[in-house]
């Protein structure tokens, strides 16, 4: 089990540099950020672009992996996103992971004035978006004309530092999301905050993990070929209030099949995220859960 963190893009440039340096110094494997135009309680507060935040994070670290949890098609286009990702992968010397999800009916979905979509249609769009990105990131020039996106000789030279492309971490608890992860993903993402999680792994999540394994087998992949990333909530006492409790919870989720756990960096002015006293012991936590 690996330990990673999620740093929301709410800090000014100086504090952002400090937070990402700290994440590397504390021994986290990866540091992720949310990719939204704005988000919930921060809608009327500072909220910066995810990809530019990752660029700044990459500039002050050397070994820390960086990524989004998650990017959606709500306001991104595969052609422009592919160019951004290739640039980020170059700046970071091959340390970028792209989290992908269908998005929800939220500010991100409304900000460009697009008509609302049902969950089924959002999944339709995500599948096309992800397949287009895969083509863009693995070929020098791509053209396509789909239901949602069009490209005419889109150039993506020199391609990614990571070959054949940057890893995709795909979120989706339903059958179609799991099939997409099996088709194109290097990891599957679970947002624990959507479950009623107590001290034990929720039964519904255990069922999802079983279905994911079956989906991978049906696709001709070994179940262990797909990483499983657990993103815990901003306010998750079992993971954020006590070091020993976090280590114990990580053991439960490792036994269920997760390979990486992501805790939130503290956000002091709103009192959310991992308690600073726990976050500061990330190196110890990472060492103890590494054998799980």
TrEMBL record:
KW Hydrolase (keyword) present: no
UniProtKB keywords: Flavoprotein, FMN, Monooxygenase, Oxidoreductase
Matches recorded under InterPro entries: Luciferase-like_dom, Luciferase-like_sf, SsuD_RutA_monooxygenase
GO biological process: alkanesulfonate catabolic process
GO MF annotation list: alkanesulfonate monooxygenase activity
SUPFAM superfamilies the UniProt entry points to: Bacterial luciferase-like
Domain Luciferase-like: 11-197
Stated name of the protein: LLM class flavin-dependent oxidoreductase
Species of the source: Gordonia asplenii
């Amino acid at each position: 089990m690996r330990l990673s963190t999620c740093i929301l893009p709410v800090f000014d440039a100086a504090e952002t540099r400090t937070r990402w340096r700290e994440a590397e110094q504390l021994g986290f494997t990866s540091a992720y950020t949310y990719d939204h135009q704005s988000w919930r309680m921060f809608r009327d507060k500072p909220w910066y672009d995810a990809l530019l935040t990752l660029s700044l994070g990459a500039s002050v670290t050397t070994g820390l992996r960086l990524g989004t949890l998650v990017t959606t098609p709500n306001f991104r286009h595969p052609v422009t996103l592919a160019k951004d990702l290739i640039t980020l992968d170059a700046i970071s010397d091959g340390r970028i992971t792209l989290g992908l999800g269908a998005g929800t009916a939220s500010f991100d979905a409304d900000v460009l004035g697009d008509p609302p979509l049902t969950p089924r249609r959002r999944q339709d769009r995500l599948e096309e978006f992800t397949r287009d990105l895969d083509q863009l990131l693995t070929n020098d020039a791509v053209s396509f004309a789909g239901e949602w996106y069009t490209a005419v000789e889109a150039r993506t030279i020199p391609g990614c530092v990571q070959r054949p492309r940057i890893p995709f971490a795909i979120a989706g608890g339903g059958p179609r999301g799991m099939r997409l992860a099996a088709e194109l993903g290097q990891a599957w993402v679970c947002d624990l905050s959507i479950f009623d999680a107590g001290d034990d792994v929720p039964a519904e999540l255990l069922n999802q993990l079983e279905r994911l394994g079956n989906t991978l087998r049906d696709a001709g992949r070994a179940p262990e070929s797909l990483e499983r990333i657990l993103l815990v909530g901003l306010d998750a006492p079992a993971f954020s209030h006590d070091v020993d409790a976090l280590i114990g919870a990580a053991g439960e989720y490792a036994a269920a099949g997760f390979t990486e756990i992501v805790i939130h960096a503290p956000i002091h002015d709103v009192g959310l995220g991992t308690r600073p006293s726990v976050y500061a012991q990330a190196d110890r936590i990472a060492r103890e859960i590494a054998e799980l």
